């Protein structure tokens, strides 16, 4: 970060202030929404080999206007209090935008997970969970963590097991954390959720002819050139789904080890397989290695998807960005000052607080599943399938036509859990974008989607406070 450039948390607060100026909300209410309600900074010892290491970790609850609070846990050497506070704040606004009834929270453990064995990571995770339990910073109705950068279903399963060991007999205990493996009370479709949400959000954004004409694009995802920074969970699923279901053309991918480029397009499924086999994206057949990994961000393309970490586009490189759309699949990938430069260039920025909300949306579905103690689709799948079969049989009887087994299965199939999850996610992302765009179009002084998204979030959060009688 260059000298004088705002920190991640300061950027979030600056964007908040920018949006607050477009509301009529009470100054005291705005201040209550803006600040973090609770910050838990901890240090705890964990035995690693024959020595003890003191681990630095955090859990921040930004807003308790709705409970439980909700947010992921990241493992990274870049973790610090400023970052976790910023991510927690974004979670509050993100949940409000997609109408998920949670307050925002976030957790972080300052380690490099690659430097530890599985057993050592388990010890760190369980000790972190125990610290949260002791301070009442976790629970189905209190605070519900989830995976983030450097964590996944394995870590969430460890946290669940630790929580249950402290809370015998809690029948809703499985809802204390989301992003769990399906075999451990998770939900189908959670792993792909953020990337699929990015696809649904992009698909909706590029469907408006007047918006696309303004930036020189046609409507629809088909044929759009795309650059992806980061091939982790979010980037890989974004690429796969945009390519397979949207027919987008991915021309470059950037990762930790470098960046590759091909004007003919890169098959993401094959690239992911290649990287698993070789440990790198470099050398993938049909691609050229770029001079450095940051160079991919500056390629001419229709859609740039930064899906890595925060502050990847900033004052030093924003002027070189040639994408027409920047979809913030990561949290805070464009700094506040970098955004000012992109907006002056006419770039359409689809903000992180909307476009990467697929994860928390499906986490919400998982939380509901855990509280209801029932798999989605279990009650209605067979009934619906039989109903569709009866309709088809009646049509066949009345028309005298025949229907093949493949066509019959396609029409009459009842919805599985993943079908319902995907349907609910698409409805959420489409509805949220429409709300943001309506504010953007209605309030003439708002010139960007991020500010419109903030205004949407602030109005909803304020309504919660008012309905509870906290503010007039």
Low-confidence stretches: none
- Give the end-to-end Cα distance, rounded to a whole number of Å: 41 Å
Structural class: alpha/beta
CATH architecture of the domain at 36-184: 3-Layer(aba) Sandwich
What CATH calls the topology of the domain at 36-184 is Rossmann fold
Biggest β-sheet description? 7 strands, mixed
Number of H/I helices: 16
Please estimate the helix content. Answer: 40-55%
- How do the helices and strands follow one another from N- to C-terminus? HHEEEHEHEHHHEHEEHEEEHEHHHHHH
Q: How many strand elements?
A: 12
Radius of gyration: 23 Å
How do the strands of the widest beta sheet line up side by side?
9-8-7-6-10-11-12
Shape: globular
CATH class of the domain at 36-184: Alpha Beta
| The CATH H-level homologous superfamily of the domain at 36-184 | Leucine Dehydrogenase, chain A, domain 1
Strand content: 5-15%
Rounded average pLDDT: 93
Task: Characterise the protein shown here.
This protein has helices spanning 8-20, 27-34, 81-97, 118-134, 153-166, 193-205, 209-214, 233-244, 268-278, 336-344, 352-355, 358-372, 381-399, 405-412, 417-442, 449-467, and strands at 38-48, 51-61, 69-75, 103-109, 143-147, 225-229, 249-255, 258-261, 288-289, 303-306, 325-327, 348-350. By secondary structure, the protein is of the alpha/beta class. It has a domain at 36-184: Leucine Dehydrogenase, chain A, domain 1 (Rossmann fold). The strands form 2 sheets. A 7-stranded mixed sheet has the order 9-8-7-6-10-11-12, with helices on both faces. A 5-stranded mixed sheet has the order 1-2-4-3-5. Helix 4 packs across helix 5. The chain is globular.
């Amino acid at each position: 970060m260059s000298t004088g450039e705002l920190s991640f948390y300061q950027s979030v607060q600056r964007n908040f202030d920018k949006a607050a100026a477009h509301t009529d909300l009470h100054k005291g209410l705005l201040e209550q929404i803006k600040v973090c309600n609770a910050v838990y900074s901890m240090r705890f010892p964990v035995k690693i080999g024959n020595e003890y290491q003191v681990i630095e970790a955090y859990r921040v609850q930004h807003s308790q206007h709705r409970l439980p609070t909700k947010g992921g846990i990241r493992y990274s050497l870049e973790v610090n209090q400023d970052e976790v506070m910023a991510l927690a704040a974004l979670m509050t606004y993100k949940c409000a935008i997609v109408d998920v009834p949670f307050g925002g929270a976030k957790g972080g453990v300052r380690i490099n997970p690659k430097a530890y064995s599985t057993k050592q990571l388990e010890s760190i995770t369980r000790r972190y969970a125990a610290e949260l339990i002791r301070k009442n910073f976790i629970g189905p109705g209190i605070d519900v963590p989830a995976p983030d950068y450097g964590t996944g279903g394995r870590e969430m399963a460890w946290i669940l097991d630790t929580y249950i060991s402290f809370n015998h007999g809690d029948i809703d205990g499985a809802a204390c954390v989301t992003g769990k493996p399906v075999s451990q009370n998770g939900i189908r479709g959670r792993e792909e959720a953020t990337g699929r949400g990015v696809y649904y959000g992009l698909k909706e954004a590029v469907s408006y002819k007047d918006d696309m004409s303004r930036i020189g694009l046609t409507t629809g995802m088909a044929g759009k050139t795309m650059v992806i920074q980061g091939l982790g969970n979010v980037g890989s699923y974004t690429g796969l789904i945009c390519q397979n279901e949207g027919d987008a053309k991915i021309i470059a991918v950037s990762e930790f080890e470098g960046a590759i480029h091909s004007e003919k397009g890169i098959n993401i499924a094959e690239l992911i397989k290649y990287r698993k086999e070789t440990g790198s994206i470099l050398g993938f057949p049909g691609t050229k290695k770029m001079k450095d990994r940051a160079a991919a961000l500056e390629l001419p393309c229709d859609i740039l998807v930064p899906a890595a970490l925060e502050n990847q586009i900033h004052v030093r490189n924003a002027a070189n960005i040639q994408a027409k759309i920047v979809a913030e699949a990561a949290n805070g990938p464009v700094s506040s000052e970098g955004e000012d430069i992109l907006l002056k260039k006419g770039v359409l920025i689809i903000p992180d607080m909307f476009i990467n909300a697929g994860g928390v949306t499906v986490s919400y579905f998982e939380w509901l599943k855990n509280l209801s103690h029932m798999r989605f689709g279990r009650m209605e799948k067979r009934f619906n399938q039989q109903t569709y079969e009866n309709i088809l049989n009646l049509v066949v009887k009345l028309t005298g036509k025949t229907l093949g087994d493949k066509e019959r299965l396609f029409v009459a199939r009842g919805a599985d859990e993943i079908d319902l999850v995907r349907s609910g996610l698409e409805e959420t992302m489409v509805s949220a974008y429409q709300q943001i765009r309506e504010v953007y179009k209605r309030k003439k002084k708002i010139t960007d989607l991020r500010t419109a998204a903030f205004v949407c979030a602030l109005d909803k959060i304020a309504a919660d406070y008012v309905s509870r009688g906290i503010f007039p």
